[in-house]
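Reopening this one. Same input as before:
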Amino acid sequence: MKKAGIIGGLGPETTSKFYMEVVFACSKITGKPPNIIVSNVGIPLDVEEEVVVNAKNKEMLLPLLTNSAQQLEKAGADFIVVPCNTAHVFIDKIRKSVRIPVLSIIEETSDFLKSKDIKRVGLLGTRLTINEKLFDEKLKENGIEIIIPNDSNQSKMGLLINRLLRNSHNKKDKKELLRIIDELVAKNIDCILLACTDLQLLVRNHNKVKIFDTLDLLTKATVREVVDISTPKPT
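Same output, byte for byte:
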């Protein structure tokens, strides 16, 4: 099996869940747990809030991400994964900072949605993910139209995600997220894409629309690489 390197801490609870899901899935296939290395990114809370809520000071994340990637490479990782959509604003620079492969949650998601013949997707993520149009190029290449929340709802998304990162979310946050999803459903979308890996902590299913979770898709891609499965796309 290949040794996976995880750039974690960009949502501690989500990192923990991602790690456990990869371990359980690989163990089920191979009969033993995989060798995984985690480098926890220590982002100051005020910087994290600026990036997530206000989409500012993103450059402060870059040295933390590339340093973690280089540490994982030195520790013997065969490839790297970043279970955070927003951090993929620097995916090209992270890839250039190391000599080992770095999986992209955006590429994996785009391939998956294409395989499901999705044409219109309601995309939920941080303001930085939306502003930087992280998914636009890949999804449009596959003929997929992106529908995003209005500006007011996007501001609420930022506050909601920040509370998830700090483990201070509550039932009102789930209710608010479902309301935002309902507004997107009214725009004739084919599915909802949780383009923030922390959102799955609040909602995973909806009675009116299919929800696809980017964390789940990255988990399957990571398992594929660890156990060296030849199938190129998650199902």
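So the earlier flakiness isn't reproducible anymore. For the record, Strands lie at 4-8, 36-40, 79-81, 120-124, 145-147, 191-194, 210-213.
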